Amino acid sequence: MMSGRGAGVPEIEELNRILTVERELVLKTQENYRILKEKFLGISRENEFLKQEHLKLQEGSEKYEAVERRTRSSVREFKVDTIEELQNVYRKELQDQNGQIEKLRLDRMDLVKENDQLLEEIAELNADLDDFKRREKGKEMEMKGNFDRKLKEIMMDNEKRVSPRLSHYEQTIEHLHAQLQGKEEVILEKSRAFSAEIVAKNSIVEELKRAEDSLISKVTNLEATIQNLNVQLLKQSNESELQLTIDGLKLKNEILLKERMDLEQKMRQDQREYSRRISDIEEKFAVRITEFEKLCEQKDGQMEELQMQLEKAEKLREDFEKCERNRQIEEEHRERLELEVKDLYAKLQKAGDDRQNSETSLKLERDRLEVSLVTLKKQLEQTPESPQNVEKLRKELRQMEHKLSAEKEKRQSTIREFSSAFKRVERQQKVFQEKFREKMTISFDVL
Predict the structure, then answer these.
(1) Is 385 helix (H, G, I), strand (E, B) or coil?
(2) What is the pLDDT of residue 331?
């Protein structure tokens, strides 16, 4: 057992040496990885610087876009201002037209009121004329009645006599006829004047109605024109805005175009310079990246190899620990088997001693029985006994032989049992030694 432990010590030292070498390789790998990481950080800083340059160029492009946006906003503001001015002019004209329409509406209302007053006056005049005609007609009828009555009286008186009063009455009648004709002419003249005035008022009313209708049609046309102008203004706003803003935007456009051209030229120069620098940096970066990738691949290969070696060493250590545990278990098992073998040897020795003692006792017993048998045979020959005694002696002889054979069988079975146990112990010892040799062989092959 001590020899087996002494043989395992060099193997442990070899494994410790291998693990020490593996640790040194791991430390070197970590150092190389740190160096590569520092190089990678340097490349990352260069990349960050390039990103900052790119951001500066982006800021320049954003400034250019801001200038363009300001230009567009200025154009839009100018367009909006022009549109607002046009809208203000249009609103002013529309307000003037609405004021004229309102004035015409007020004039129409005044004319309508005046027309109503004239119609009332005409109605009053017609009523007065009718009353006057009725009064005049009544007077005329009354005068005719009086004239007829007086004429009848005169005729009756004339028939009676002819006097100077008749001529006076005739003159009075003629004078009355003349007055009547004069009044009729005055009434006709007044009637003609009233009719002419009514016709004039009616013509004025008709003219006012026509003026009102024309004003309404003008208002309708103006509203339609306003709507059409609004629609046309909405539809043709872009063209009209462009036409209106061309003169105002020429100077701004020229200034902005000049600024834009200068900015574009500067941007192109910056872009060319940036592209050149980027291409140079990209080439350098590509070369460095390629070198870094190759180095990383090499280091990855070394790391993988070291990892595999570490895994093998770890596995070997685990196998060694397992072998050590198995060896300890086998040592314990072997010690237990040795103890069992010792016990078996002791038992076997004891059984041998017992067997020897039993054999000795059996030999003595057999000798004694043989002597007794010989003695009995001699006695039987010398003094013949009865058949019962002979049978008894034979029975005792058979019992002794059976007892002797039983003791012999028991001794042989004990010997077989100890032999099988001893063979089993030897077989287990041989299997353990073979397993231990195989594990140690595998461990050294892995190393």
Answers:
(1) coil
(2) 74
The predicted pLDDT at position 1 comes to 43
CB 158 within 8 A of CB 166: yes
Percent over 70 (pLDDT), the chain = 49
Give the domain range for residue 41: 27-235
pLDDT at 214: 74
Say whether both 98 and 187 belong to one domain: yes
pLDDT at 443: 55
Of residues 62 and 436, which shows the higher confidence score? 62
Quickly count: other Cβ atoms within 10 Å of residue 86's Cβ: 15
CA distances to 105, 206, 367 from 215, in Å: 8, 14, 176
- Domain co-membership, 207 together with 324: no
Confirm if 26 and 327 have CB atoms less than 8 A apart.
no
pTM of the predicted model over 0.70: no
What's the one-letter identity of residue 156?
M
How many domains, in total, are found in the chain?
Answer: 2
CB-based contact 43:288 (threshold 8 Å): yes
The burial of 218, by beta-carbon neighbours within 10 Å (0-12 exposed, 13-18 middle, 19 or more buried), is given as middle
**Residue-level pLDDT at 275:** 67
Q: Is 312 exposed, middle or buried (0-12, 13-18, 19+ CB in 10 A)?
A: middle
Residues 325 and 427 occupy one common structural domain: yes
- Of the three residues 205, 235, 265, the one that is the final residue of a domain is 235
